[in-house]
Amino acid sequence: MRQFSYKAKVGPGEFKSGIIQAENKTVVIKRLRQEGLYPISVEEISSRPLKKSYKKIHSRDIAAFTRQLANLIHSGFSLAAALATLKGQSRHPSLKKLVSDLYEQIEKGAYFSLALARHPEAFSFFYLNMIRIGELSGKMDETLGRLAEFKEKEDELIAQVKSALTYPAFLFTAGAVSIFILVAFFIPRFVSMFSDFDQALPLPTRIIIRVSALLSRFG
């Protein structure tokens, strides 16, 4: 089923707007007339992902956006007003474009979860499900607050993991470079000394000498 936002006239100077699920626009108009309404406009709400036309938005920017949106709604802003405020304040070109699209979809009458679903590169499946819960429970500010906290903790954990992996990676790289220098440049200097031995060299030593010879040849 597709979703349509509508605006209809109820009586003199009285209007009604909302969202209807139907097969097509004709069915929507017919249903509105059956309810005694005079349709003024009917538009389909698209939930298809947009083609990515901007640079990737970092997770920390989504976390900040979520936190600011939660604070504004908690302060009494409507969702549309909060998005309009964030759109005007954003200095991040990609985030500004994303928030602008969210605002336009909300103004058309779309559910927030459907508007977010148009940007799968920015909002995860978990994020969308949490927003749906907020829509059903009527506690959007609380839901956004919890989402913001989750995103902040997630980013903090990722940063800690990256930091923890950086030092071992440095040690591994330094060790690999040291071994390469040893095998390629220093071992060959000892080959002549090894050749003076009367006894057969151990297998590991012979392997190192072979590898050293290959590296010297191609180095």
Task: Give your account of this protein's structure.
With 219 residues, this protein is α+β, with helices and mostly antiparallel strands. The chain folds into three domains: 2-45, Ubiquitin-like (UB roll); 59-157, Type II secretion system (T2SS), domain F (Receptor-associated Protein), CATH 1.20.81.30; 168-218, no CATH class. It has helices at residues 25-34, 59-74, 79-89, 93-107, 112-117, 125-137, 140-195, 203-218, and strands spanning 2-11, 14-22, 38-45. Helix 2 (59-74) packs antiparallel against helix 7 (140-195), helix 3 runs antiparallel to helix 4 and helix 6 (125-137) packs antiparallel against helix 7. The longest helix has 56 residues, at 140-195. It is elongated and about 95 Å long. The protein starts with a strand and ends with a helix. The mean pLDDT is 79.
Output the keywords.
3 domains, alpha+beta, single chain, 219 residues, Ubiquitin-like (UB roll), elongated, Receptor-associated Protein
Low-pLDDT residue intervals, each spanning 5 or more residues: none
> Helix fraction?
55-70%
Please state the structural category.
Answer: alpha+beta
- Tell me the count of domains: 3
Distance between the termini: 66 Å
- Coarse shape: elongated
CATH superfamily of the largest domain: Type II secretion system (T2SS), domain F
Instruction: Give the ordered list of helices and strands.
Output: EEHEHHHHHHH
CATH class of the largest domain: Mainly Alpha
Mean pLDDT across the residues is 79
CATH architecture descriptor of the largest domain: Up-down Bundle
The portion of residues forming beta strands comes to: 5-15%
Strand order in space, largest sheet? 2-1-3
Compute the CA-based radius of gyration.
31 Å
- Count of alpha and pi helical runs: 8
Largest β-sheet summary: 3 strands, antiparallel
- CATH fold naming of the largest domain: Receptor-associated Protein
Counted beta strands: 3
Oligomeric state of the chains in view: single chain
